[in-house]
Records
---
Amino acid sequence: MPTSNDPRDNELAAQYEAYPYPERNPQDETRRLLIGSPSHLREIDYWVFAACRSRSKALRVLVAGCGTGDGAIMLATQLDRAKRAGEVVCIDRSKHALAIAQARAETRQLTNIRFIEGSLTDLGPLNLGLFDYIDCCGVLHHLPNPAETLKNLTHHLAPEGGMGLMVYAPYGRTGVYMLQDALENLTPFTETPSVRLDVAKRIMRTLPATAWLRQNGNFGDHLSGGDAGLYDLLLNPRDHAYSIGSFLDLLQGAELEPTCLMEPARYDPALFLPDPKLRKRVETLTWREKAIVAEALTGNMATHVAYVVKKGEKKSPPDHMDFDAIPVMREIPGVELAKQMQTDNTLPFAFGTLIVPVPLPPQARGLLPLIDGERSVRQLAAILETRGVAVEKFKAIWQETFTILLSLNRVLLQSPA
């Protein structure tokens, strides 16, 4: 494990060698595949390539800071299951983390993934070449110079390529930084990881009832994630959170622009503001201002997940009203999503710890089970016409249904074969 002149960076390296995050057992790959964002294959097809790139084209992927491999294993598995050509190149400087990720890949018998030990702050000597897609999830906020690293990653993007990013957000992590400050005084980062972890565990056993972390329900994955989860949450020596405004500024500095903030609807405050006068005020705001207001109002965004491309390379996806377009469910089958609709035709949607009832057209209940990634909009219209829904009426239903469910990242458009 190389050392640098940055004591915090050395402690960070020691942390992930001692407690690779997230804590994973490779044998669990025999019974489940962890799904998330970014780097879901259907999301990449739509949000990066605007559902215009042929699925027959090989996809070259870099996972920049793969840790124990959640995103890499998900994407490599999805490529393999879809029989799509491609390679997932995983880089991390932790031998221990890479070993776990590699063992997970071996359990799944994945042949489209490889692992390289290396640092994101010194990619040059690795001669990696260009990538169609780069995943950098949960990494930038731990680096000594996130802006410089993001710029360097941008240089490794192939033309018309894009990235999936995740960074911590401040308001949804209320309570974390207070405890981090307390623990840095109680157990400085110059102490060994095992000593620091012991102190953190003792603190958690007797944490005062008034501690803000006790009021925050956003950390099930960390607090139930074993030693690695607790260490990463409370003892990480460098943990910089980005408000949505500062995150967009970071992208701007790297000459990147977002194609999607995940899920898009959570960044529209109108979703949480039923008052008509307030909604009118929201309508006067810019897209950036809306996102800032939504983050401040909800207070529960613990991360920001985004798909981004180089400035000037953002494409418009096909028109979802084109009768030749083929919609596809992102992950949850349409029949299951329809079952979640309430009697008042609302879909309860969880934005983290906030549940919002999202209204859908009543006919969406029968329409959703028909979306299978093969039927075109024309075919959907024809089926509903046999059920008494005229084509013009179908168009209005489809416009509303698709627009809402796209904003929830539940329905996308299929890329060409």
---
Amino acid sequence: MTKRIIVVGAGFAGVMSALAAKRLINMTLEQNSERAEDIEVAVIAPEAQLVVRPRLYEEDAASMCAPLDGLFQLTGVRFVQGSVETIDVETQRVTSVDQTGRRSSLSYDRLVLAAGSDVVLPTAVAGLSEHSFAVDQLHSAVRLEEHLKKLPSVPATPGRNTVVVCGGGFTGLELAAELPGRLAKIAGLESDSTRVIVVERADVIGPDLSACMRPFVGQTLERLGVEVKLGTAVAGIDAGGVTTSTGERIETLTPIWTAGVAAAPLTRQIPGDKDASGRLRVDTHLRCPLAKAVFAAGDTACARTDENDEGAGSQHQYSRMSCQHALPMGRYAGHNAAADLLGLPTLRYSQVMLGTILDLGLDGAIFAAGDGDEAVVALAGAEAKPLKRWINETLIYPPRADDLAGALASGDPVNRTTVPAGLGC
């Protein structure tokens, strides 16, 4: 009787989960184990493509995706096109709907929830959903790019020439640093009259960045001509501009919302504790404590990244909603789902690589090694740009679809990425 591992989602964590599960199943088969002969690995997602979300702030957003059909065919992963609507942990069945509206149901023996996250649009901000842009998903990033290219056809006004980035977190800062260069390339848009403004409710720029990075980031934004308004929230957005919590009115046709994300709503269908972002609190093997057949990875999982078993929970370090964590979490989750089904020992999730790299547009990038207050700036400016490009253009992309051994090896949970020589690390 065929057993099945279902992976929900084809993002960074989902792809790695599928490859890790297939890797262990194939390894077990090579040892002549009958236990692995009839285990299917299936990925359910709207499209057989990986959207490279960390690059959606860049130019040419439509190209920021990688096809997965060939990779799935090569590795024997079954792809099911559809959006998952329900996960029934009692009957262990998943219901999805495809693009035609047809519903289908699949049973699972183990499930990896890797459905990602979505930008949060607070209802308290009037006009937000109607009048703002975003770079959270492929379609929204493409919509923004099309809008920017059309700006020269609009009568020249302060609102036409002003872009307001709502949120000075990681995505907001990368976008704000990128925009001066992008706006300067748009024919008919006078670069000397354009303004880029970041509105951040915290009292510091990049509140989630390590303290060692903020001074350099602030100085870079100033050099790029990006204005920053700290301690200020967005109160409302309309067709002509943004109103802040201080009562200031900023005329703009381009308000871009980047302030906050939450785990995919499917996490609500899995019993157990969630964090403030809706992520499932998983154990050290990425299993959901109240749904033993379910593992979670990527932006749907809140997992410990340290190995300290003592002390209060607040002293522990936890995964972040980033591909830096999603990739290894996917490897561990997929491996453990397969190992659990095969009766093999599962592995404790370990986050070996910790660091933060921020793209700063024409001014380069900044890289800090380590985590939290212990992080130190290792590279900055032009020296950090090659490392950022390698990460964005090579490291986070799925493996080639013509190399089976390499594709399966990429799912190794103890996979250690080596930075190529010459990138400064």
